[in-house]
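Hello,

I think I submitted the flavin-adenine dinucleotide job twice by accident. Can you confirm which output corresponds to this input? Input:
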Amino acid sequence: MAAVEGFNRAVRPGTFDPGSLDSCRAEGLDPPKSHWARPIDTPPYYGYPLRPGITFTYLGVTVDEQARVIMQDERPAKNIFAAGEVMAGNILGKGYLAGFGLTIGSVFGRIAGREAARRATA
Ligand SMILES: Cc1cc2nc3c(=O)[nH]c(=O)nc-3n(C[C@H](O)[C@H](O)[C@H](O)COP(=O)(O)OP(=O)(O)OC[C@H]3O[C@@H](n4cnc5c(N)ncnc54)[C@H](O)[C@@H]3O)c2cc1C
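Support: Only one job matched these inputs. Its output is below.
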């Protein structure tokens, strides 16, 4: 209850617009809520458990077309290969297409596996 009352006190008047970064903010909260802040004062209330996950970080290692990891000297490692999330930034710099996560893992997993086997049996 104290958390809700504190939040409500922090809410500043604004014009609510769920479709844009509106002017409804709450002052003095940590982390700050810069938009869509509205007092919680009208029932009915609903609670939902949230379990966030990271789909992409867009960061990770760089690979070449053989899935070899590019090292700091900008040369490909002979025996380090990467596939999937850890190298997805090579394919997607931003945004997302449905199914791309598993596609990147499958396609580069096959390439990395093939190249690692080739290296191991050379
Ligand atoms: C909520 C959510 C929804 C998604 N929906 C889709 C979708 O609909 N379609 C789609 O294509 N993609 C989707 N993705 C993305 C997709 O799930 C991922 O891109 C894919 O699972 C990545 O596979 P990966 O093998 O590269 O990495 P991961 O599946 O993350 O596997 C990495 C593994 O390494 C292990 N690990 C980490 N550190 C260590 C360590 N030090 N030692 C040993 N093991 C370690 C981890 O425990 C994990 O098992 C979704 C992702 C999320 C989070």
